[in-house]
TrEMBL record:
It comes from Streptomyces tabacisoli. This is Transcriptional regulatory protein CutR. Pfam families: Response_reg, Trans_reg_C. Residues 124-217 form the OmpR/PhoB-type domain. Residues 124-217 bind DNA. The keyword Repeat does not apply.
């Protein structure tokens, strides 16, 4: 899952991004509304964690732009105000969910994951295919009932492949969904991660390489 965190309190923004990355999400961070508009014009995000009171371009205007563009991106709006009227106004602007500050990080993570499941065809909370069971909320992976320990990027790649439900996923798509914008697109990081993931999942191999196209399960 790829997430954009838009928050002008830099320490908070960086802390949220670090926490979400530990949950195997690819996270980009910006600190004002203008930078947010620039990013959503370039990258395809599953969820935008959007502070409402932003400099340069207000969070309300960022939300309006996402809706205007008809993007599938879901918006989790943050605000220092917990008033019902503010929550209603934010939802009417196009936000999909609303979280007042201060918040528990576990709740933020749960809400981001819930929104991520709604970005395309609705998917179950637990993904299962070819004997593999992946629970994004618990960060658990099992194969034929045996738990598999995965690093965050390995987990993220496996989640993207399972979400594709048998369709081929290109290396470029994996790079976009599992890594942030600071990753060099010309590295072999996708190939190496897939190789390591195959080894950990064991035999028989369930990740199939489709020459010239990508990978599928």
């Amino acid at each position: 899952m790829r997430v954009l965190v838009v928050e002008d309190e830099q320490l908070l923004a960086d802390a949220v991004a670090t926490g979400l990355r530990r949950e195997a999400m690819a996270v980009d961070v910006v600190y004002d509304g203008a930078a947010a508009l620039e990013r959503i014009g370039v990258n395809d995000y599953d969820v935008v964690v959007l502070d409402r009171d932003l400099p340069l371009v207000h969070g309300d205007d960022v939300a309006r732009k996402i809706v205007e563009l008809g993007m599938s991106t879901r918006i989790l709006m943050l605000t220092a105000s917990g008033d019902v009227s503010d929550r209603v106004e934010g939802l009417e602007l196009g936000a999909d969910d609303y979280l007042p500050k201060p918040f528990a990080f576990s709740e933020l993570t749960a809400r981001v994951r819930a929104l991520g499941r709604r970005t395309s065809v609705p998917l179950p909370p637990v993904l299962e295919r070819a004997g593999i069971k992946l629970d994004p909320n618990r960060r658990e992976v099992f194969r034929d009932g045996k738990e598999i320990q995965l690093a965050p990027k390995e987990f993220a790649v496996l989640e993207v492949l399972l979400r594709s439900e048998g369709a081929v996923v290109s290396a470029e798509q994996l790079l976009e969904k599992a890594w942030d914008e600071n990753t060099d697109p010309f590295t072999n990081v996708v190939r190496v991660t897939v190789m390591t993931l195959r080894r950990k999942l064991g035999e028989p191999a369930v990740i199939v390489t489709v020459p010239g196209s990508g990978y599928r399960i």
